[in-house]
Write the structure tokens for this entry.
Amino acid sequence: MIIDTHCHLISEKYGDLNQLREDSLALGVGHCVTQGTSAYDWEPQLALAARMPDFVSSCLAAHPSEVHAVSDEQLAHMEELCRRHPQAAIGETGLDYFWEAPEGWSDEAFRARQRMFLERHFALAEELGLNISLHTRDKVGLASFEDAFAIARNFPKVRPVFHCFIGDGAQAERIFCELDGLISFTGILTFNKSEHVQAVATWCPADRFMVETDAPFLSPAPHRGKVNIPGRTKFVVDKIAELRGVTSEEIAACTTANAKRFFRLPEGL
């Protein structure tokens, strides 16, 4: 079985989630971890995970690009939801310095609010004994990565996964050695001109990486440009197997084991 460790099932791009489940199962993806982004999707995600517990686990958080739209009261409400409803992790959170600040915000104020939310999310993960799913993105340089890294250092009991990893080997080594963290590969790995990511996937220790779709985004080749589904994690697994010269079954087995440990998923899945 393959586990998609990062997707967004509460998306307007999806219609029939029962069909999405069947299509994903047919491709060998038996479970997925859906990630929260803002107040509009927290409770629907909890409801979906309750309706499909064998196929869906939920995480709640505020995506960094959404922090201006989430009030302090809504943030506190999310924290209470996580205390009342078991979560696989806290996510998706992080820092995004790629986009300009929304109207009415300076870049400095918007980034400061992102950092405040990230610290709150780490503190909640520590309180609940959970790990955390991180997003970092920069237009140039590594400022968001470095700032997120500095915050993560203050919470050594919380293991981070840097999702949709597109960094280099030096960044990966720091995540592994300094944070005891993991990285996760998406369909970007199957794209042309992704040699630097492929290089990391080739040597990465087997207990340090997971696979994901970031669905409905980043559909892998040969489906690039289409609405993605969790089932297409299979194409990421197949590409990693090709790069490492092993079978897809071996990559599926190790990434599933890593996902079960990281997200504390039931062994019976």
